[in-house]
Amino acid sequence: MAEVTLTNVSKSYGTEVALDDVTMTVPDGAFVVLLGPTGAGKTTTLRMVSGLDNPDTGGVTIGGRDMADLTPAQRDVAMVFQQYSLYPHLTVRQNLEFPLKSPILRTPQAEIDRKVGAVAEVLQISHKLDNKATALSGGEMQRVSIGRALVRDPAVYLMDEPLSSLDAKLRSDLRIELKSIQADSGATMLYVTHDQIEAMTMATHVGVLDNGRLVQFGNPRDIYENPISIYVASRLGQPRINVLPADVFGGAPDMATHIGLRPEQIVQGNGEESFVQRVEHLGDQTRLHLKFKAHDLITVTDAHTALKEGDIVKIRPNNPFYFDATGARLT
Amino acid sequence: MAQIRIENVRKDFGSFNAVKSSTFTIEDGEFFMLLGPSGCGKTTTLRMMAGLELPTSGEIYIDGEEVGQKPASQRDIAFVFQMFALYPHLNVGKNISYPLISQGMPKAQVKKKVQEIAEILGITDILKKPVGGLSGGDRQRVALGRAIVRDPKAFFMDEPLGALDAEFREHMSEELRALHDRMGATTVYVTHDQLEAMQMGDKIVVMNHGSVEQFGVPQDIYDWPATKFVAEFIGSPPMNFLNFNGMVGVGANSVRLSNVSLPVPVTIDGANGDLTFGVRPEHVRLDDSAAYRGRVKATEYLGTTQIITLDTPNGVLKARVASSDRIDVGDTTGLTFDPRTISLFDAASGKAFLSQANVEVLSNG
After folding, report:
1. Which of A108, B8, B31, B206 is an S-S bond match for B58, by CB 3.0 to 4.6 Å?
2. Beta-carbon neighbour count of residue B259 at 10 Å?
């Protein structure tokens, strides 16, 4: 349990700027998800906090303490990586005990048993405790590697795409488990993902990174409903936000060069005519691929719509976003 | 262009039965998805259609001709793999023209054909470039070009987008589908990604443990799954299963769960014993006046909608509702289920019982 701060942190690898003057406060007990495409600086940020790497300039604190000269082991952080690495010759129990048996911690055996039991229960692997680690399914192995971080009660959890190697159903189960473990333990979490569903559903705060810069930090609803730029608006939302020239529907404000329309910002049934190019039935909803004045547009409609390719559907914007020439949002 | 018909095809590897007796038809010009988890037999099925594996028994017809025991080279199909292999020492144009030159096509004709393909794929400006420096997307376009250039009867693709990241994957899947619509060639596509299958496919075969679980158009399969496996594999979050023990007579229009009567489509099959009530998350409504109760365990914000996870007397349930609704963890609420959309399953076998709502879909599949 601790607040984490990064102050003016920059980091380059050779000529590649990985982080560019990042300042961010992760409040005590927050679940912060870092979002951005490959190369945005998400993993580098985690490495700065963990101590696996040090900033070129700027500073990191955990619980108010400057981390400048501390090794990863001295920082009281627990990391989970995308690829689980368990000790294959040990049982699940021995794998979970391992971090507690480190000479720095010197945990008594009774305490170890209690913690391992509790974590195994939360992760629903109690019945597998005496199995060899290699006798588990992929999802179970990933639970054990998450469990190995959880037994430690660290000040901060750092997780780098811990769920991305799992199948869809398991991912959605573990999303809820991780979220409730974090909420119950009150630990601070810094979490990296590509997956916008994970970001929206688990985070108390989302940090959006673009080429090493932190461009927006706020709660998921804020990021989705009040993005500061086209870049941020494109990070969340499926199908992705439609970005068209500002004047295509008329009525754009002065400085606007682009209009941004999420599916819920497009009213169907009145307005101007668009042409249905393709209808995709996804089960719970149907996506319409529209052609509107030579622009492509994707929106969502009722699962059992009668619309089909070649139909005309009228559309108009409803509370759209407007952006200027630099991509910044106009309000 | 071809119709492909699979009849009672089975494949054993030693004592392991990879594909149980499977039968389905791929119509001329269809974009056809083979969907299932890893190890379900979908890739083996595709490899048998292509002639890369020979079936242990059964027949495969391409345009009416039985080709089951013929080698791949005599079937006139093109195969695109997940890891597309290009010739690293040849440029883009030469990579695409290679299959034509090895067939002995005259040079002028080859040139014309390559130009035509490059235009379809939008890669005319990179024809002279070495393949080494290309982006992932361009490499894939070149691999596709090499498959298309021969004008095969059908294209077979085995998770061709599997290695790409999410953003690019979406873009390429749209491009592939648009390409198919322009050329109209029969395409058989293997994937484990249900959304990809729903999004791109004209028809889907869902496989599990070597058997065909269901076969049909995407929306039908989503609405009226033949088995619990299909109901769970398709849709995210999947269909909810509420387990109960009860008796349902032929012609019934409701079932009793935890002493609450819930309306369902009129049944055609009767059922008795351990049963499952299946309802999709978007067909669950939170309604305080309803008798069937659940306790909110978690809420997940998804932008336009949110997913509510509830504990009910019959198991965990997820509901998809508008994100503007205020719902707090710990709340107890009433639940209603859109009666037109309910499926009932046998809990043990997983098979859906017939009702007047699903009979049309399930008797065609």
Report:
1. B8
2. 8
